[in-house]
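Hello again, I could really use a second opinion on something today. Take your time with it, there's no hurry, and the full record follows here:

___
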Amino acid sequence: MEPNQVITEQEEVTQTPSAAPVGYNPGPSVEASRTVVNSAYNPTPAGRETSRTVEQGYDSSGQQTTRTASRYVSRPRPQGEELVRRIIILVAGLIQLVITARIILLLLDAKTTSSLVDAVYNVSNIFVTPFNGILQADAVKSASSTLDVSAVLALVCWTILEMVIFWGMNIFRRGQANIA
């Protein structure tokens, strides 16, 4: 179950005063005769899932019973801390994706004349430039492919920064302390 998920269940049991069918013998079972009228899963546009089951049968005294069980599951939109957390995940994921694409394109010796390759290099350069010159070698070349060591270092550092941000957010998170 998701953190913001709200589940509402409603169950209704009614008895209809009607005679049992001719030859009805409940025997050892309480619900000897049971018919499921409707059982469905219906996602609604508002993000609410509903399922409803209607069962008709007879109880041990021969009275007809109808049991209706409904379940409504709503997922409200994320707010506050959860929204900030999702935005950080999106931004960090995009940064990691661009840097990884740069590493792969350099390893495959992609042509810089392609506008897509050039765009990936230009965008990723924003995130890789602060890490240029930290190590003795910024790149390792073999034949025509290049391993951009600065980009690998940048990928690791941006991932660590993302983890530190989440760690900092968890310090200020409201909630109950685990007391052993």
Summary: Helices lie at 81-107, 115-128, 149-171. The two ends are 25 Å apart (CA to CA). Residues 6-74 form one domain. The longest strand covers residues 6-16.
